[in-house]
Design a protein that fits this description.
0% helix
Length: 115
């Protein structure tokens, strides 16, 4: 199948029931170069491409108190955060923030991109 085409069918369903307490939602970010931008608006999506190791930041899982939460432990919740390389040494520099919410029945790792 050509990159970027999405075909619904018995072997390629949007929602997938798995053993456990929640369904999986699958979606595709197209890879082909014709899908990585919008020339008329002056931007591209090359940020989704792999980054050379020397330029990679760090992904961390952080716990915080949250009364009533049950995951990963009673009254503890978590979020996943990505910080750019050298973030801790970039005092005063502003970075854009992208927040992904997984709703109530998941955890902060549901929004991670695996590569």
């Amino acid at each position: 199948m050509e990159a970027g085409n999405y075909v619904m069918g018995p072997n390629n369903r949007l929602f997938v029931n798995v053993k456990g307490d929640q369904p999986q939602l699958r979606f595709q970010i197209p890879y082909g170069s014709k899908y990585r931008g919008c020339a008329g608006m002056g931007f591209n999506f090359d940020f989704v491409l792999p980054v050379a190791k020397q330029y990679r930041g760090a992904v961390s899982i952080v716990n915080y108190t949250s009364p009533g939460s049950i995951h990963p432990a009673p009254d503890i919740h978590e979020f996943t955060i990505y910080l750019p390389k050298d973030y801790e040494r970039s005092h005063g520099k502003a970075y854009p923030i992208l927040r992904l919410s997984h709703r109530g029945d998941g955890n902060g790792q549901n929004c991670r991109i695996k590569s």
